[in-house]
């Protein structure tokens, strides 16, 4: 019979009290037994016997860790405190998501203010996403070493610093630097919000709170262009960044005083020495090279140029080096390669990739359709996306409640991917004029499909990893989502540009060579002044050509949705327990978990050798 311990309720809330060590069945009743105190905190999680470990929502096969099964943290917090903490986390996610879109309508004005070149314009547009994607894996392991609360507070502070730099910027270089700081911190806000929820609530309850993050993301994506356009038109573009200061300050204050979660006493120098710096720098370098290649291709340099080819190839090669470092060198890897040992995790990551590819296309190309083809203003474009935002929000929240109620996530993944594929497939039928039934109904279907898969694949992943890997698994999930978004944007853009270029002879016959050659440069950044100045017949021809080119991009995204749907059927069901596995943080906990994994692997090899003999 496994040993049990008594853990003070305040300790579960993150207070520094008696340290505990137990091994427990996830379903067994807890007997209480004091084992004394330790100077440093340990990892607290759930551990099952080998025969039943696949049944447990929080225990991986053949891994023996320091464990404790407790009631969910939500039962330890009052409802009002839960609402306050979740409100602050949603504010953090809102700001990080908002800053991906709020400057889209302000960029032309900002570029004019700074007298930016085309290259400078591109850097202002992409610096946030580049920093966001490249730094995302780093935050998970950092929170394992220093604790969730200090790191989420640090990312909040960095985000506010980046926002202030952007708001006060007097040069384009200063603005780009501020956006990069914002992006790096924004990635931390999103990942750490997800990790914090996994620490506060059981795997059965998390979908409800992750659903709220999905709602927040959808609202931020819709409001970004509207708020940015309003500030740029009526006040100044600088308010796109000043806005973050009071809202982010409120979130920072609430989390400082109300977030009660275990925080280890990790000495700064020891913690910094334990970070997988070689892996972090290699991952950031690989991501930046790869994304720079995608960003420059067809814009700053031809796709066949040595610059683009070298960036993409060396980026991929550096990813290979990163893999070897994480597998063979890193003591505490940023992205543990054991996450990719099970089919379940690989399939979940693949579904995440496909979902992100499709979702980001709607966030980018639907506003492009409304503004460049239907000639709507940025503010009206945001209004036109409301059907998708509303359906996405309602279904995302509803899915969270559904999973919490029935304890099943596969059905939500399947239905969501099916509706997403159908909805984006219907986008192929969009017309070069305002067909409101199509615009509204197609978006409602697409939003209903996107919504369930903000949280469902993440729940499937967290249900299949050990609590000691919860933070790195969640960060890896976010990293794959960001990389998928970047790749999908580039592929969609290449398809759109190539198909539009194929229609050049037809357009030249109607517009003439001079006007046709001006169209691509004129419409860069959403400028539709040339298109609006054309006579009706010529404008109709251009809009039809653009709609046709965009439809071919929708075909690609529909295919990606279909691939995700097929992969979704390979996700297995794992019971989502209401018992909560608390993952404690700190260097001693990391070291103990590492030694236990080594011992488990050694025992497995010995057992295999005996079986063969």
Automatic annotation (TrEMBL):
Chief localization: membrane
Ranges of Basic and acidic residues composition bias in the record: 1-13, 22-41
Cellular component, GO, one term: vacuolar membrane
Cross-referenced InterPro entries: MFS, MFS_dom, MFS_trans_sf
Region span, Disordered: 1-72
Record bears the keyword rRNA processing: no
Keywords, alphabetical: Membrane, Transmembrane, Transmembrane helix
Domain Major facilitator superfamily (MFS) profile: 85-576
Membrane topology summary: Multi-pass membrane protein
Protein location: Vacuole membrane
Membrane spanning stretches: 83-109, 121-139, 151-173, 179-197, 209-231, 243-261, 273-292, 304-325, 346-366, 386-403, 412-428, 440-461, 473-496, 554-571
Keyword check for Transferase: no
One MF annotation (Gene Ontology) recorded for this entry: transmembrane transporter activity
Similarity comment: family membership: Belongs to the major facilitator superfamily. TCR/Tet family.
Function: Efflux pump; part of the gene cluster that mediates the biosynthesis of dothistromin (DOTH), a polyketide toxin very similar in structure to the aflatoxin precursor, versicolorin B. One function of dotC may be to transport early-stage dothistromin biosynthetic intermediates from the cytoplasm into vacuoles, thereby affecting the rate of dothistromin production.
Protein name: Efflux pump dotC
Organism: Talaromyces atroroseus
Organism phylogeny: Eukaryota, Fungi, Dikarya, Ascomycota, Pezizomycotina
């Amino acid at each position: 019979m496994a040993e049990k311990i008594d853990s003070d309720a305040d300790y579960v809330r993150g207070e520094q009290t008696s340290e505990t060590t137990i091994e427990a069945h996830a379903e067994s009743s807890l007997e209480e037994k004091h084992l004394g105190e330790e100077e440093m905190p340990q990892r607290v999680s759930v551990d099952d016997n080998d025969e039943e470990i696949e049944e447990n929502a929080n225990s991986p096969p053949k891994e023996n860790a320091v464990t404790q099964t407790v009631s969910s943290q939500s039962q330890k917090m009052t409802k009002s405190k839960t609402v306050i903490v979740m409100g602050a986390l949603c504010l953090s996610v809102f700001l990080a998501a908002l800053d991906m879109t709020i400057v889209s309508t302000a960029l032309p004005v900002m570029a004019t203010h700074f007298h930016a070149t085309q290259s400078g314009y591109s850097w202002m547009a992409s610096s946030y996403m580049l920093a966001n994607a490249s730094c995302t894996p780093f935050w998970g392991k950092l929170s394992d070493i220093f604790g969730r609360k200090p790191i989420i507070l640090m990312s909040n502070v960095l985000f506010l610093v980046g926002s202030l730099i952007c708001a006060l910027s007097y040069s384009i270089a200063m603005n780009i630097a501020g956006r990069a700081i914002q992006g790096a911190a924004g990635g931390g806000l999103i990942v750490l919000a997800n990790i914090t929820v996994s620490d506060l609530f059981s795997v059965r309850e998390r979908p409800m709170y992750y659903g709220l993050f999905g709602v927040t993301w959808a609202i931020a994506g819709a409001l970004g262009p509207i708020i940015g356009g309003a500030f740029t038109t009526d006040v100044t573009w600088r308010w796109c960044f000043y806005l973050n200061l009071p809202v982010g300050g409120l979130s920072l204050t609430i989390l400082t005083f109300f977030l009660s979660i275990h925080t280890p006493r990790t000495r700064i120098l020891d913690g910094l020495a334990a970070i997988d710096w070689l892996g972090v720098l290699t991952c950031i370098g690989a991501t930046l090279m790869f994304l720079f290649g995608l960003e420059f291709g067809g814009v700053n340099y031809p796709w066949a140029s040595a610059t683009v080819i070298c960036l993409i190839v060396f980026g991929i090669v550096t990813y290979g080096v990163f893999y070897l470092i994480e597998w063979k060198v890193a003591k505490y890897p940023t992205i543990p390669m054991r996450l990719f040992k099970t089919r379940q995790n690989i399939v979940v990551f693949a579904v995440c990739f496909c979902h992100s590819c499709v979702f980001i296309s709607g966030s980018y190309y639907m506003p492009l359709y409304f503004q460049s083809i239907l000639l709507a203003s940025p503010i009206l474009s945001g209004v036109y996306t409301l059907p998708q935002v509303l359906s996405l929000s309602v279904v995302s929240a509803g899915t969270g409640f559904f999973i919490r109620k029935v304890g099943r996530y596969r059905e939500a993944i399947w239905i969501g991917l099916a509706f997403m594929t159908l909805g984006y497939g219907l986008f192929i039928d969009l017309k070069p004029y305002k067909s409101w039934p199509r615009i509204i109904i197609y978006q409602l279907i697409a939003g209903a499909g996107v919504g369930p898969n903000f949280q469902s694949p993440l729940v499937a992943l967290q249900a299949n990893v050990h609590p000691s890997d919860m933070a790195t698994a969640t960060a890896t999930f976010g990293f794959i989502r960001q990389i998928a978004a970047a790749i999908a944007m580039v592929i969609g853009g290449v398809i759109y540009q190539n198909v539009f270029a194929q229609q050049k002879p037809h357009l030249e016959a109607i517009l003439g060579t001079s006007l046709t050659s001006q169209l691509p440069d004129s419409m860069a950044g959403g400028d539709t002044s040339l298109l609006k100045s054309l006579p009706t017949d010529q404008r109709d021809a251009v809009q039809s050509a653009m709609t046709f080119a965009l439809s071919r991009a929708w075909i690609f995204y529909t295919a990606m949705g279909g691939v995700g749907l097929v992969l979704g059927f390979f996700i297995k069901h794992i019971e989502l327990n209401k018992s909560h596995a608390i993952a404690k943080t700190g260097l001693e906990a990391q070291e103990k978990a590492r030694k236990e994994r080594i011992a488990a692997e050694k025992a497995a090899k010995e057992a295999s050798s005996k079986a063969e003999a």
